[in-house]
Specification:
This is FAD-dependent pyridine nucleotide-disulfide oxidoreductase. Helices cover about 25% and strands about 25% of the residues. The protein is built from twelve helices and 25 strands. The protein starts with 6 loop residues before the first strand and ends with a helix.
């Protein structure tokens, strides 16, 4: 990239766009960089919205960088709405501005937006998602009179909704159309663990239930939600958590090829010259790694794409494709932490088997996925793990998946693979015992260190 007199414009100031801008500036002190966002003047941590509402943080606490960071690094911030993109002219049209906004290189990092509910009464106040700062502001505005809420759609955002509202004494009904919570990701045993946990925290969980209508009073405010089972649930809020979709409507008519998201190759290049896409809005033509999807809408994948693209833009002779490695993710369901490593499906596929172990108290569980070998002499290979209430070490499981560790090795090293120094020594032997009973395979117990070996070991 020729440095001087070039203008890099990034649409979006989320984790993907900001990471790209930061790294380009690190490589290139001369290029002009502008980030355009309608949502907020500064980058903030989107995952912290719930903690603002719960009173644990303020908006200022969610900004990773001081406001002085941007001018100091000559990163121009423009709060505006991009209405259209014109690749041939290399300009953008911004809402309320007559003059076009020109660019030399364009990065689309416009993120995603909540899917809305296609039922009668869903348009209007009191029906919203929880994704943007403006969503939080609308929720805060209605909170003084908010007594009852119906959450629609089972997923991570739905649990965040529930925890937030319960912290303010709001009665919460949670509609999940499947037989158990998050059944597209978790199997029945894992889902039932979380079903129990949500109910223990005061969530009124309605399984195999959907919303069929949003009712409103004479003033147009939400008054109730009618369910697919005919129940009428009083509510002043219908919180939508049925997933997100790439925020790309403004690209219509631009000529940029889109599918579910903006179609990109391994270098995040779109169909148009000098235009790239990263983060939630980018849809890869091919999955970037085994066990991964073409559309990855997780914060760390946006960060990694931003880093890779910055290197490619500034080092075209040595481009850096997006290589995310084995899949991982984490979340929190009230006070149960969840981690996943590898492609662990809700239902087993051909050639796979698993071991599910759950503590009798129902707050800690592991589900280990491993290969089903044709030969009885072959040791099954470790394929992935879901953990609940049991912290695992990312570095260990990333290496185990990359190197193809045998499942027996992972089990034998479970103590060192765990982050919970207090819990893993107590629970790991029970997991190994369950594995032996289920498979008949030999798994050794770790050798206990003597006092002197412990004292002098590194």
């Amino acid at each position: 990239m020729s440095r001087k007199n070039k203008h890099l414009v990034i649409i979006g100031n989320g984790i993907a766009g900001v990471t790209c801008a930061r790294h380009v500036r690190r490589y290139d002190p001369d290029i002009r960089i502008t980030l355009i966002s309608e949502e907020s003047a500064h980058f903030y941590s989107r995952t912290a919205l719930m903690y603002i509402y719960m009173g644990h943080m303020t908006y200022a606490h969610t900004k990773p960088y001081e406001d002085s960071f941007w001018p100091k690094n000559r990163l121009e911030l423009l709060q505006a709405r991009v209405e259209s993109v014109h690749p041939k002219e290399k300009v953008l049209r911004l809402k309320g501005q007559e003059s076009p906004f020109s660019y030399d290189i364009l990065v689309i990092a416009s993120g995603s937006r909540p899917r809305m509910l296609p039922v009668p009464g869903s348009e209007g106040p009191g029906v919203q998602g929880l994704y943007h700062l403006q969503d939080l502001e609308r929720l805060e505005a209605m909170s003084p009179y908010l007594k009852q809420a119906v959450l629609i759609g089972g997923g991570l955002i739905g649990v965040e909704w529930a925890e937030m509202l319960l912290s303010r004494g709001v009665q919460v009904h949670f509609l999940v159309r499947e037989k158990h919570f998050w059944n597209t990701v978790l199997d029945a045993r894992e889902g039932q663990l979380l079903d129990r946990h949500l109910r223990e925290h005061g969530v009124q969980l309605h399984l195999e239930t959907e919303a069929s209508e949003i009712l409103r009073d004479a003033t147009g405010q939400v008054s109730a939600v009618r369910t697919s089972k005919g129940e009428l649930l009083p509510a002043q809020l219908a919180g939508i958590s049925i997933g997100v979709t790439p925020n790309i409507d403004f690209l219509e008519g631009s000529g940029i090829v889109c599918g579910r998201g903006v179609r990109v190759d391994a270098l995040n290049r779109t169909s148009e010259a000098d235009i790239y896409a990263i983060g939630d809005c980018a849809e890869f033509q091919e999955a970037p790694a085994p066990g991964r999807k073409t559309l990855e809408q997780v914060w760390y994948t946006g960060r990694m794409q931003g880093e890779a693209l910055a290197h490619t833009l500034c080092h075209p002779e040595d481009p850096s494709p997006y290589k995310p490695g084995p899949w991982f993710n984490s979340a929190k369901f009230f006070d149960i932490e969840y981690q996943t490593y590898g492609d662990v499906p809700a239902e087993l596929r051909a050639g796979e088997q698993d071991l599910y172990w759950e503590h009798p108290e129902g707050k800690i569980a592991l589900r280990l996925l491993f290969s089903q070998e044709a030969s009885s002499d072959a040791v099954p290979r470790f394929l992935g793990v879901n953990s609940f209430g049991w912290r695992l070490r990312h570095a260990y499981f990333d290496q185990a998946l990359r190197a193809g560790y045998p499942i027996t090795r992972v089990l034998e090293e479970l103590e060192s693979a765990s982050f919970d120094a207090e819990f893993s020594p107590r629970h790991a032997p029970k997991v190994r015992a369950a594995f032996r009973a289920a498979t008949g395979l030999a798994v050794r117990e770790p050798r206990k260190k003597s006092f002197f070996r412990f004292l002098f070991s590194s």
